[in-house]
Amino acid sequence: MAIDQATVRKIASLARIAISDAEAAAMEGELNGILGWVEQLGEVDVTGVEPMTAVIPNKLRLRDDVIDADPMTGGNRRDDILANAPAPQHGFFGVPKVIE
Amino acid sequence: MTELTNLTVAEIRDGHRAGDFSAVEVAEAFNANVAGAKALNAFIVETPEHAIAAAKQADADRAAGTLKPLSGVPIGMKDLFATNGVQTTAASHMLEGFVPRYESTVSQKLWDAGCGMLGKLNLDQFAMGSSNETSHFGNVISPWKRNDGSNAALAPGGSSGGSSSAIAARLCPAATGTDTGGSIRQPAAFTGISGIKPTYGRCSRWGIVAFASSLDQAGPMARDVRDCAIMLENMAGFDPKDATSLDMPVPNWEAALSSDLKGKTVGIPKEYRLEGIDPEIDAMWDAGIAMLKDAGAAVVEISLPHTKYALPTYYIIAPAEASSNLARYDGVRYGLRDLPQGAGLQDMYAATRADGFGPEVKRRIMIGTYVLSAGFYDAYYTQAQKVRTLIARDFEAAFASCDVILAPTAPSAAFGLGEKMADPLAMYLNDVFAVPASLAGLPAMSVPAALNREGLPLGLQIIGKAFDEQGVLNAGLAIEERAGFTARAEKWW
Predict the structure, then answer these.
(1) pTM of the entire structure?
(2) What value of ipTM does the predicted structure carry?
């Protein structure tokens, strides 16, 4: 199914990527080319086939319920976490005002 | 004495251990090569001081009798691995200037094993690409040239193109790579070196910038099979911080290397004989079959009936996972922020992502967003997951009658920079032989097998059963010993 420029803009909006009209026009052709090509998967008979969720069978583990068992992924790392924030403020992530 | 930068990982390790040279001498020699190879653009950040510090430690450890497995070996680190205190960008503008406060599990293991870091290696942006032309920090150039005097700049492959170019040019003896759909094997083939993608889960993904989490797997790239085995032993291992990490012991792959393939059976997938493919690729493949027979293996034809659907499956699943993984780049917590005058939060997200992602990354995020969107999810994404099951089953069935599979790594030798950038689909097709093993999570490696008529390297691929890296390495070694590939790029940079 071919997608049009309105759909391209809709996808870009869902993906939170700003695009210009010229970019939307260019992407319309590219995305249709790729989507047209992947559509051949529709011809595969998948009756009774389970979708793959784990390529190598692996049980999900639970760790012991210990606070800061691994100091790297535990708490008390505020300064490390904020070190690369573009606009840290008072020990928090700063963002533009969202409530008037 | 041989030039230090011509030594393999094993030779550096053993020579250092024996006192033939100091680790500092080795680090200095490689640092000099790195500094003199700007024209290749293989590194985003050079870290000569890291390499020297590790080398001094290695020399001290030798004096104290406390040598580690890789003491004295400097390596290159693909810039997809988070390195504590050293900029980590995934070759993107989005992460330009990002300096992690933590170390990826795989890189930490290598430092713990005694390695030093020569620098962070360039790659395709977020590991999305097959030619290293999507990096925000410029194309990596292959050290190889065609022998027709054209002097065209060639692609080192991708996404681990900085790794492949640097190893082929003797800027480092080994490097880390990551492979989502061929990103270790195809660059290795393009540059005449070796590289192995282990079974999914062997190497921890913790601290590796995520692309497609069900496919991403780290692995080593080096000049020969033994070095790949040595490096992999020091990269693999269970990590509780990665939910898909394999809780299995790491075998001693190097010690068990054997090119005697008596009693082994090699499968040749008939669906990999592509119509219209360069006859030199098929000729190399036939030569590889003869080499494995010579090593004692039996050869059987096998069928992987869903091969033609592997690439389209990959180009649904990988973008879908990428669109989800890359949602984290929002201009709030780390990386770039683009805040237009008067913009609100939503506009900031959109402006940041428009500015921070390159065209190929945007393309894949858009594809992924589309195939996961309401109304299309089942038709695209669920269907692709089902076909992925069938592709994995194909391999399972094939491995009932063989131990390893032999195939070409890529459908062509290295192409020129710019030759395929205009057509995303043509670029994607370059991974036609590499993607099926990725989708099935299987170990697979590329070894250099021959030069084509243009004087460019071609690689053979060995695919093994899950967890059987040993079988893959052994078959690779059998080819390496018989192919006698010693060609190297003539220095022009």
Answers:
(1) 0.97
(2) 0.95
